[in-house]
Amino acid sequence: MKKLDEFDFDTVLDRRQTDSSKWNSAEVLAENLLPLSVADMDFAVPAAVTQALVNRTAMPVYGYEFQSQALKDAIMAWHDQRHDFEIRTDWIVFTPGVVNGLAISILAFTERGDRIVIQPPVYPPFFGVVTENTRRLLINPLHYEAVSLRYTMDLNSLEKLFREKKPRLMFLCNPHNPVGRVWTQEELSLLGGLCEKYEVLLISDDIHADLVFPGHRYHPVLGISKAVKNNAIQLMSPGKSFNIPGLRFSYALIADRALRDRFSAVLSALALTKTNIMAKVAAQAAYRDGAQWLDRVLEYIRENYLLLETTLARELPWAKVIPPEGTFLAWVDFNASGFDHRQLSYILRTQARLMLYEGPAFGDAGRGFMRINLACPRGTLQAAAKRLVRAIAQAREHPPGFIEILDRPSKSCKCCG
Ligand SMILES: Cc1ncc(COP(=O)(O)O)c(C=O)c1O
Q1: Which CATH number goes with the domain that contains 330?
Q2: What pLDDT is recorded for position 398?
Q3: Separation of 99 CA from ligand 1 center, angstroms?
Q4: How open is the CA angle 51-57-62, to the nearest 5 degrees?
Q5: For position 4, what pLDDT does the model report?
């Protein structure tokens, strides 16, 4: 492959040469779809990351290794420099993945049947990790303000749930996938106060922490106040920030000693403490030398968002792109399309030949929405936007016969059927 300029995000890399979950899934291949679905980027990683991995292969022994102090220093320096957030070495507990961190928190701090609060629309594994571990979901939907296109937490209903249903844990997503909110200091402080008052442990999934657009700022819950710091766990990873989620590297930040000991005990009981040596090489290089790449990729993603937003405003003015404050995901409201979700989904799949992430996978409030991954070359997004606009515009102009087919119950639709 020809050597790429590190900041060339326009060149299309053929990910079909790999077992990419996004590009080589059975559905994408069988139906020849253009995928803007799974939340990874279609961009090459920072040059320093590739170089560090290549350097490591010069020593072709891949035996067991531990997490060095240099790795922990790189993590601490990153949080200090990027987020003005000082952490201590002993707060860091390595985990294989962020969702593993959610599962470990469930096992460490709850019993079978206990209740856990989530705020949909939210990343689908927030549902599954609770129910698959035989705990019960308590749903506190985000409030959607359809005029301002902004989502907020409904803290009144949350307090009522805390008081009446006595959950043990609350899962926060900060920044929030899929709605793109980067929660403010004030919102987190109110939330943290409620968690403390009702003795609900706050588990914050901050995998998108580094992906924040100008004008917004990521606030780590551990930095909100002393009380919140001792009643919270932050789950972190460089996976999304530097496009290395397939390497599997993440860590929890736990300031409170007792919480940390319980969390670590479960990790140990599940024999999940060993490290992936390539992942730690990549993570260390990314944290040490990846800041400029991240700034540039964020600019590029922001321009992609503007392209999608202006295209839809011009061509399908009733469709609304929720302005993201962070993440590389666009959450698009198609509820005014005149089609129900199943019809919309059918049009996008069979007419536009697009694979988007279906809104209902994020909870009932996602009906009529699609999540579109903006971390792709501009040409890919342009092609996808064109297909989307054409297919929906045509379907609205000539309500097609195939819509009737959908009136029959379908078993094939994953989200609705
Ligand atoms: C909010 C959120 N948490 C966790 C993950 C996955 O994390 P991991 O692969 O480290 O389990 C994702 C991936 O899309 C995500 O968006």
Answers
A1: 3.90.1150.10
A2: 85
A3: 6
A4: 135
A5: 73
Binding-site residues, ligand 1, Cβ < 6 A: 39, 97-99, 123, 173, 177, 205, 207, 237, 239, 245, 250
Q: How confident is the model at residue 410 (pLDDT cuts 50, 70, 90)?
A: very low
Give 405's pLDDT tier (boundaries 50, 70, 90).
low
Nearest CA to ligand 1 atom 14: 39
Q: What is the 3-state secondary structure (H, E, C) of 71-113?
A: HHHHHHHHHHHHHCCCCCHHHEEEECCHHHHHHHHHHHHCCCC
How high is the mean pLDDT of the chain?
95
Of the residues 288, 314, 340, the one at which a domain ends: 288
Do 30 and 176 sit in the same domain of this protein?
no
pTM over 0.70: yes
* CATH number of the domain encompassing residue 274: 3.40.640.10
pLDDT category, 356, cuts 50, 70, 90? very high
Q: CB within 8 A of 74, min separation 6: which ones?
A: 283, 284, 287, 288
Nearest to 124 by CA among 134, 115, 137, 111: 137
Burial class (CB in 10 A: 0-12, 13-18, 19+), 84: exposed
pLDDT one-digit tens code per residue, 39-52: 999 999 999 999 99
Q: How far is the CA of 244 from the centre of ligand 1 (A)?
A: 12
User: Are the C-beta atoms of residues 231 and 68 closer than 8 Å to each other?
Assistant: no
End of a domain among 272, 288, 304?
Answer: 288
% of the chain exceeding 70 in pLDDT: 95
